[in-house]
Amino acid sequence: MRMTSRNTIWVSRSNGQLLTHSNHLGTHLDGEIHFFTPGKDIASLPLNEFLVGPCVVVDLSDATGDYQIYTPQMIEDRVEVRNGDILIIHTGYHHFGWDEPFADEIRYMVQHPGPDRELAVWPKEKRSSGLASTVAAPTTRCLHLWRRHR
């Protein structure tokens, strides 16, 4: 992240800072339409239905590496995922983000671990409210966040 101090900010004439960062820095949400053409955009999603609720975090950082996959079995071997839980998958690959001491853009954006095909349907079977991961590029190999399947 780059921060630039400004004496005044354009129209409001207030003091402030200008922040410039990657669009994959920090938390963000991809709507259904990001993965499924007829899906809903963010404005059409009832956010309280799938962003609020019981959550479980699984740490797979010691079990995955570059280009490797993770499976529902790997997750269930480490944590109990109950029906309706939001699942957050920690891979450790946020440490390769461009603003980190071990920055490596290729590892961060391309080489991160991702789910196997089975994990694409598993959240539906678990009636998961949401699925999130600590990797950067959901469009390459990872499912960043899924809306609840009914």
Description:
This protein is of the alpha/beta class. The chain has a single domain, classed as Putative cyclase (Glucose Oxidase, domain 1, 3-Layer(bba) Sandwich), CATH 3.50.30. 17% of the residues lie in helices and 22% in strands. The chain has four helices and seven strands. The protein has helices at residues 47-50, 72-76, 105-111, 117-125; strands at residues 2-9, 14-20, 55-59, 69-70, 86-90, 114-115, 130-133. Strands 3-5-7 form a three-stranded parallel beta sheet, with no helix packed on it. The protein has a two-stranded antiparallel ribbon with strand order 1-2. Strands 4-6 form a two-stranded parallel sheet. It is globular, with a radius of gyration of 18 Å. Residues 138-150 have low confidence and may be disordered.
Set down the secondary structure blueprint.
Layout: E1 2-9, E2 14-20, H1 47-50, E3 55-59, E4 69-70, H2 72-76, E5 86-90, H3 105-111, E6 114-115, H4 117-125, E7 130-133
Parallel strand pairs: 3-5, 4-6, 5-7
Antiparallel strand pairs: 1-2
Second rung of CATH, namely the architecture: 3-Layer(bba) Sandwich
- Characterize the main sheet: 3 strands, parallel
Describe the strand arrangement of the main beta sheet, using strand numbers.
Answer: 3-5-7
Oligomer: single chain
Question: Which regions are unreliable across 5 or more consecutive residues at pLDDT < 50?
Answer: 138-150
**Overall number of domains:** 1
Helix content: 10-25%
What number is the mean pLDDT? 75
User: What do we call the CATH topology?
Assistant: Glucose Oxidase, domain 1
Strand content: 15-25%
CATH homology superfamily name: Putative cyclase
